[in-house]
Design a protein that fits this description.
Chains A, B: It comes from Streptomyces kanasensis. Chains A, B: Involved in the recovery of exogenous heme iron. Extracts iron from heme while preserving the protoporphyrin ring intact. Chains A, B: Pfam families: Dyp_perox_C (PF20628), Dyp_perox_N (PF04261). Two copies of one chain form a homodimer. With 414 residues, chain A is an alpha+beta fold. Chain A has one domain. The first copy, chain A, contains ten helices and eleven strands. In chain A, the strands form three sheets. In chain A, strands 7, 8, 9, 10 and 11 form a five-stranded antiparallel sheet that branches. The first copy, chain A, has a four-stranded antiparallel sheet with strand order 4-5-3-6. Chain A has a two-stranded parallel sheet with strand order 1-2. In chain A, strand 9 and strand 10 form a beta hairpin. In chain A, helix 2 runs antiparallel to helix 4. The N terminus of chain A is likely disordered. At the A-B interface, helix 4, strand 6 and strand 9 of A face helix 4, strand 6 and strand 9 of B.
């Protein structure tokens, strides 16, 4: 393995929650932007360390892009419903158009003669465009027989405050890029290419740290100031693929290589949180705020010692600490890959920010990952007093397209 | 002048509208982030080419930061009204607190023991925090005698569709940074330090291209895909200071070194715009979309030949083209420094984006800069059919604080 690949793997595997770069080298000082290619986890095909602009993520592969890539600085989530009268035929044409557009966009190329030009001059900027199907899509297209069991509606949780207008949807597109204009251009293009086949159901904007904002790649922080993503599984972990991606030989062969995305708009009650003294914040989370290390000591990556008692005879990591409740070993090994964006949609009439986390998590089976963990958090997490789940959706995200295929072809044309 | 200063000046002066970097060199691979210092136009004090994170803008100087610096990737604009009962005394204490906080924030330091930690690990990321006073501030603080003539309300324009709730305000803070978490942290800190002295009146979020998204620094594009900012004056232009900053010896000595900011939320009717064929878009603007060159030929920086006629005997740059109407020579030399952010606040119920430009322009006297230009655009600009001014504000932005001073001290304690 060459040095470049080594560095690339480290960037990819070691910093799932980080959006930093250990070094940036700028390419051509003028003219066209040269494109580095960032692997999708199934194989890295070029130097990973390049300008913000020139990093390109492949559209084709075993998995769709936007699952294994490092967090991007800017994101758009958008759900569509099929228009009245549109069915399987229109869905086929739509997924063909969207796939063609996504491949061009991710290569940093304009999409057709009516391209708006917003992203012109910029490189691909690590753009990913990811497509998913909601439960209702299968009703609308007459494909109920191919609907995965895993798309059963998520159970209601006692702390849910869900807005149905901002939840669910026939189709879902996740857009991420390290440049806001590139991301917006992709969103506009996806909407334009949708034509009359669909209507926007909801749309949300998010962000993460910029590349190079920290001196070295680090796990992300959320808007509570917490290091968030430490416990994320790494592609090198045993069983990673099994936890995150649908294996071959399942009940729905078209989902092989795919994954299920749970999307939750989690409002953070930041004024309440920020008013809490640091020691109390750390007790709620079970980790130090400064570096994310467990309260039982060590560094960010040290395993929490859930059995350790303090001088007062109580657990050092409290019984209701978020880190304890959400730990895989407390949830039968439930493992999911979290890949969120933060959001901030302004300040409400009461002066509090409409801000929080666009939580997106990936798993082979939500009933063995998100659902049991959220059930436990819902009952006993000290963090619950400071957050509010305001929207929810679940999508089947098929595997990546092979050469000549469009996304979802194995579902729609099997 | 050293090479570093040369490059720094070029970055600063030659690319007011661009957010690119010709080269990025990362500092320490671990530990504290080293801070490069970016000049404020009055003198460059360190190497300008550094990581996204480590670039620091000085808080003190002849002018406040956030006027001459390159466009940042992320911005927050927020206006406050003094709380009932609050007056000059509270304003003094507020500006002291805000100045202390802004200086720490811009240095990448936490603000007090209750700092939320959102920006922890990141460097200053070119953060700027800029403060201004609205017309109503002088009534509330008993300082009407020191209210500049330049704060007379802007005239109504026929195409205005202004929302008073998102317009005006006693106080204004402009926040810009190359990292979204750093910018959000600054916004939260400004709100926290405001305490009970003020209430948020309105708040808007914006963005520009990320550093390094293009292979070389380039003038920005807006969400219409147009190169936007070509005609901006450069600090090296004759008369730049006179046009942008208030000179000594004026009617209000406290405004020496200051500037007036006009803020307009300009919604773009992007679906209408994008439906327009390229040739028509170019006729509306008077410039080529691909590279921003005038329709009369040359490159982006070539002066438009406003008298040139085409084979049909009509002006090559149409009579109602935006580039013609807004040209300084068509407006008695009116010159202002535009330094906007794009915005995108989601997709409305009709499926169209709530997106456009948070237009911010800087001038020594709005009645000789923004007002005459906007009057002319309002009457005859072909672009007017594709935009809608939805909010408006005008603020007096005092000069930068000297050592030991807080922002606005010369107004509040003279």
């Amino acid at each position: 393995m060459s040095d470049n690949l080594e560095i690339s793997r480290r960037r990819l595997l070691g910093t799932m929650g980080a959006a930093g770069a250990t070094g940036l080298a700028v390419g051509a000082a003028g003219g066209a932007v040269g494109h580095a290619v960032l692997g999708d986890g199934s194989g890295t095909t070029g130097p990973a360390l390049a300008t913000v602009g020139s990093t390109r993520v492949p559209f084709r592969g075993a998995h769709q892009a936007g699952i294994l890539q490092p967090l991007q600085a800017r994101g758009h989530l958008v759900a569509f419903d099929l228009a009245p009268g549109a069915g399987r035929k229109e869905a086929v044409a739509l997924m063909r158009r969207w796939s063609t557009a996504a491949e061009l966009l991710m290569a940093g190329e304009p999409v057709g003669p009516s391209d708006g030009g917003i992203a012109r001059d910029a490189g691909p900027c690590s753009l990913t465009v990811t497509f998913g199907f909601g439960r209702s899509f299968f009703d609308r297209t007459g494909l109920v027989a191919r609907r995965p069991q895993e798309l059963e509606p998520l159970p209601a949780f006692s702390s849910d405050r869900l807005d149905p207008k901002r939840s669910d949807g026939d189709l879902w597109v996740q857009i991420g890029a390290d440049d806001a204009l590139v991301a917006f251009h992709a969103l506009r293009t996806v909407q334009r290419e949708a034509g009359a086949a669909v209507r926007v159901r909801w749309q949300m904007n998010g962000f993460n740290r910029s590349l190079g904002a920290t001196a070295r790649p680090m796990t992300a922080r959320n808007l509570m100031g917490q290091v968030d993503g430490t416990g994320n599984p790494k592609p090198t972990d045993p069983g990673f693929d099994r936890h995150v991606f649908v294996a071959a030989g399942g009940a729905q062969p078209w989902m092989t290589g795919g994954s299920y995305a749970v999307v939750r708009r989690i409002r953070m009650l930041l004024d309440d949180w920020d008013a809490l003294p640091l020691k109390h914040q750390e007790a709620v989370i079970g980790r130090r705020k400064s570096d994310g290390a467990p309260l039982t000591g060590g560094t960010e990556t040290t395993e929490p010692d859930l059995d350790k008692l303090g001088p007062d005879g109580k657990p050092v990591i409290p019984a209701d600490a978020h880190a304890r409740i959400s730990a895989p070993e407390q949830n039968g090994g439930a493992t999911m890959l979290r890949r969120p964006f933060s959001f901030h949609d302004g300040i409400g009439p009461d002066g509090t920010p409409d801000a929080g986390l666009l939580f997106v998590c990936w798993q082979a089976d939500p009933t063995r990952a998100f659902v049991p963990v959220q059930r436990k958090l819902d009952r006993g997490d000290a963090l619950s007093a400071f957050i509010r789940h305001e929207a929810s959706a679940l999508f089947a995200v098929p595997g990546g397209p092979a050469d000549g295929e469009y996304v979802g072809q194995r579902l729609l044309e099997a």
